[in-house]
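Structure, all two chains, one model.
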Amino acid sequence: MTTTPSTTALANFIWGEERLKRRCDILAAISSNPVFTQSPNSHALSRKDLWTLRLKQGVELLELKFKLGWSNQQFVDATKIAGDILSLGVNFRIFIRNLEAQMSPEQKAYWIPRAERFEISGCYAQTELGHGSNVRGIETTATFDPKTDEIVVNSPTLSSHKYWIGSLGIVATHALVIARLIVQGKDLGNHVFLVQVRDLDTHELMPNVKIYEQGEKGMSTFASMDNGVMAFTDCRIPRTNMLAGMVSLDPDGTYHAAKNTKHAYTSMVIIRGLMSEELGIEVAKAVIIALKYAEFRRQFNPKDGLERRVVEYASVQNRLFPALARAVAMMLLGREMRARIDNIINESLEDLHLQTVGAKIWASEHGVRDVEIARLSCGGHGNMASTGLGSLYAQLSPSRTYEGETYVLSQQIGNAVVKHWKNTSEQSISALSYLARLRDARRMSQKSQVAGSDDWFSPPVQEDFLEHRAAVLARRHLGDAARGKDTSYDVFELTMAHADLTYWRGLQAQVKQSAQHDRETMEALANVFALNAMVEGLAAFAGEEYLSAEHVASLRLAYQHAISGFATHARALVEAFGFTEYELNSVFARSGQTPYEGLLDVAKQSELTDNVFVRPTLLRARSLWKKYGRAKI
Amino acid sequence: MTTTPSTTALANFIWGEERLKRRCDILAAISSNPVFTQSPNSHALSRKDLWTLRLKQGVELLELKFKLGWSNQQFVDATKIAGDILSLGVNFRIFIRNLEAQMSPEQKAYWIPRAERFEISGCYAQTELGHGSNVRGIETTATFDPKTDEIVVNSPTLSSHKYWIGSLGIVATHALVIARLIVQGKDLGNHVFLVQVRDLDTHELMPNVKIYEQGEKGMSTFASMDNGVMAFTDCRIPRTNMLAGMVSLDPDGTYHAAKNTKHAYTSMVIIRGLMSEELGIEVAKAVIIALKYAEFRRQFNPKDGLERRVVEYASVQNRLFPALARAVAMMLLGREMRARIDNIINESLEDLHLQTVGAKIWASEHGVRDVEIARLSCGGHGNMASTGLGSLYAQLSPSRTYEGETYVLSQQIGNAVVKHWKNTSEQSISALSYLARLRDARRMSQKSQVAGSDDWFSPPVQEDFLEHRAAVLARRHLGDAARGKDTSYDVFELTMAHADLTYWRGLQAQVKQSAQHDRETMEALANVFALNAMVEGLAAFAGEEYLSAEHVASLRLAYQHAISGFATHARALVEAFGFTEYELNSVFARSGQTPYEGLLDVAKQSELTDNVFVRPTLLRARSLWKKYGRAKI
């Protein structure tokens, strides 16, 4: 394990130059700072103590931001690299971004500098107890009172309590509240309002606002985030606190609707688009921790007195290698989506929307599963908190439900398939290429042309397979939809096939941009990625003519070769990721200590090893029997 | 939610009469005991405080055991029903059972009463840091010293430290230590030794033994278990402390080997065999918590002002209904295995071994996945600790690695397939029926005879399908093994198909034993179970002649009917499970409170809601900018 990140060409390729530069700067700033390096064992702390520790670390990062002139993105990156430090990032990651996107120039000039310097601290309050995915169901009202030129915010019901609002439970002074604007009795739908919720000098709640910290999350995850619950009772804000970048409300109640509705999409597109890259980094951490253990651990089949390295078994390689390939794909494709988002005015918004929806589902489903696989591939010892694998799983796990639940979101892919099929308009959406194939009966009844195992390494063969699979599932979906079936479950399989194709294409394009020196490694990775998706996607071919039994056998053989040939490339990729010991924070990845030495060290430091505090209880338990004269005991 | 369990015929059928009786007695004893009902919020506690709380509750259960004359099994049941109370159960669940199985009559007469009355408290020390699945690799040595008539126990290396030993970290006074017996320089392999590790009066460690509590487990699970690490340095025990039920060692060093090696198998057979039933109960809890939420929660598609109940969506039904069916199958088949184990002398040990191996893998893989599915089907709110879903996942998660890791264990199925194929001996093992099919080329090339969707509800059709699938995967495995492929990954799919068939057969037999009044419900459940396994098992049919595209379509249609017709039966089953509010311990399943009311209540009780303790830090953070004169801020 190193203390400084790798900066080779392959490292720059995987991380992207900008991100790698930020990462190096952040690690240099924190890696000798005792606030981060000498913190207590987080797994042993109570929620309250852990939250307090993370706040202290967050404030230290804030001071580093100001001192070193870090950008907001760099601060957000730092909260991730430094560990699970979540609350303060909300102001920079979500609040300011929404002010920039949705405020009028005058509003921006006043509010953004205050948020930038953390003089105020903001959050984004959309979700309600009763309204998650269905944003249109939001009940919070914001009624314009022309007499006072104010807007009166109310939570009319239990189900309209704002819920899951990050950083609201303790930290935030201001909230962007999504509420239905009511003007002269007319419901104008959801709008965004800036509401001050805490006093800037005392941090007391403002009148007419109730806030509770939400409580503990499952598996102890997101312990450092103070999600909040909030209700309003006739809470008055100035009319000018309605965000007026797209819409506006005059003092006389005249309402000016949005001319450009693009913005309604963009906020979600951005957040979902960024998830792929962020998830990829966490998955890579988990897989690399597991690989380090698998390189060390030996079990069964001794030769010359040494058992076989676990990493040499097919059961480990077949789990960790595809997961590593997917992690890289998530990062590369995520970065490409980020570039498209930054250039959003030149983009087909629907195409980008469908890509980010598919990527969000695909990356969160695979990402969570792959972190779990990494933990399981370490066997029993993977269950120790000190490996870091359990908390990585817990941290990623909710990504399948936040920012759009997997099955609800999948319907957007299904709906797009139906719409463009009916309108014969798939040529406008590059991701729906398989619909053109579906219109061509000749292509749908064709058999795969593969003759031997090596053919499966050919990109056109891979694309043909993945496109055929997506077409078969699209045909099924169109049939289901036509006969009125509730497709909300089955559409998931189509979505994953759709996204396999998107990721496959994106990865192929990225591989071509890698340096010549690293091309072989990246091509090997692309083959592991592709052949895994194909082998795992065979179910759609049951009953189809496309594949023969010989095809299936030769595909499995090709996949076996891709996996067994990947070991040296995997090592090169682990090098290029170049995670420091601080970043991995795992007993399986310590410098100067083997995993076994590390595990023993953890036990020696357990605060329960000194059990003097429970001895009276134990001695009492062992003499309890004397009180009871039963024959049995 | 009720406070007393359901005791209808269906309840008795699902739980089994004995278990239901024990459960009723336990709930009656604890449901008004403040040690259990007034305990603090476990999710907010530090590991040390949580451990101390659970110990106090465990001692209270011990006193109830003595007071009310509970059997060991009843005490173990109570530690589960009362919550996550693990440490004290080891003495009764594992230690005493091993004393009974492996001690000589004289040893039993002395030791078992002491353990029964908890005068001593035992644990089972097999796993080492470097040796989990490969028990033959165990390094701890037990060298006979004829001069003193003692056995000298040593941990020669770091990797021979005993590790993962439940109840050893704090509680145990005695350990059953698995070590290599060395007599006159000759290594006689693993044997079991009773070693006293703590003083009975002071609870201090015995000389020459080092023990550390192992530290926190990932996702905060098993927090109430004090797993321990242990090393020996010339630790001397009397020769008579070697367990002498099967083997013995004379004072002169003469060694008498075991005549009956059946016992070597039985301990693992028993533990794995019991897992299916225990897992089923936990899965049922999770699914029922999720069903209660899905009955309450509404989202999208409003009719008459009310959105649609989430439980009515295919995306929820297709996830929760098969999971409920599997949970029932795990309980019923687990109970059947328990009966076979109790009658072990009349059983084919290999057949029972293969069944328990398959069941252990199948039940842990499906069980963990189904608990996760239950949580995910509750959307974002499922991530709150107070739903109980996160801790159920965390608690079940390691079941895939303990008592035999899934992939390592799967090889035992693969090896049995190869052995019996070569020896044409499959008729001796009922679970390998599909090998006979594989020998019959005519049957392997046959097409399914299904004509219409209804045919899929016929048990012979279902069995034919599942057997064909297992045969296809066995053929693949035999081919892979013949060409020397490392099958350690691929054999997993065969194992699951093998176990699908075992569970399908067992469930069919069980359904026939249900009361006439409940037969329709149980048949509906068996169809959901079967058709789900078939739809999820289509991958094996890619490239095969067995299914046509029409078959796949009609199978999917049949499955859709099975699911959508199951809603009323699911409600009957939830009733029959009859979990009390105390057992479910979930904010989604409280009497007199809706899930939303419960979630708000949890927030009101969060100890972080009163944030006075961090206000100075927050105020400092919001004025930090004044120290830094950058133009930017």
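The mean pLDDT of chain B is 95.
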